[in-house]
């Protein structure tokens, strides 16, 4: 009986897969399979068409040079160079290999700011005045020009007079930059935004004297507004160099730098990089 049941079950499975009497494959005739395949072809073709149409309509609303929708950032992000690991700059003055990577990082970062490249690619703009380049109706004023930010403006932190940016002498330079925000006008009444740095409360006695380059640590108004990477291909982001002249040795100093502007009245507690940046500086002897 067991063998007969097995033969019967096997025969049922074979007949289900292909029934020679009704010419059914897996329980369906050729016409039934054809109708199902036709339905799914039409259905998925319709879905693909809807997707393509939606993408096409969406792309019609986009501007190649400016975001159609843009969050108005009240406070741009801030970052340092060199940034090291976990925003820590730690080295030993007497061990060249401990600060070589910082010097190399600054060299690479400042190469596009060499005076010769800036003169070739950018304009000598009028300081303390927005460099506004409006379009003429539907006619694009592209590519837009950019203002020169010459490496020599960083003076003692340019890497030209001191190839080690002060790291060899224990008076290191740190470069600060603001993130680019299209269309941002960071001032009112002609006041340029500027950077100030200081130590956290517990380290206030260790930070010593600080020098800023350009003077007063300003981001000059002539570098604003920014029109976007595609519209302003040669844009040179303004920088502020901070030089720690006599910071305490062999101790951790937690430094915070922030942007000051009459358009930025309050820093966000949610975003620790909005308008400020904190890093640890330790110089061992």
TrEMBL record:
Predominant cellular place of this UniProt entry's protein: membrane
Location in or out of the cell: Cell membrane; Membrane
GO MF annotation: an example: ATPase activator activity
Membrane topology label: Single-pass type II membrane protein
Top-rank lineage group of the source organism: Eukaryota
Gene3D superfamilies associated with the record: 1.20.5.170, Na, k-atpase alpha subunit
Residue ranges crossing the lipid bilayer per the database entry: 35-62
NCBIfam families: Na_K_ATPase_bet (TIGR01107)
Role this protein plays: This is the non-catalytic component of the active enzyme, which catalyzes the hydrolysis of ATP coupled with the exchange of Na(+) and K(+) ions across the plasma membrane.
Homology family: Belongs to the X(+)/potassium ATPases subunit beta family.
PANTHER family the UniProt entry points to: SODIUM/POTASSIUM-DEPENDENT ATPASE BETA SUBUNIT, SODIUM_POTASSIUM-TRANSPORTING ATPASE SUBUNIT BETA-2
Name by which UniProt lists this protein: Sodium/potassium-transporting ATPase subunit beta
Organism encoding this protein: Triplophysa rosa
Lineage start: Eukaryota, Metazoa, Chordata, Craniata, Vertebrata
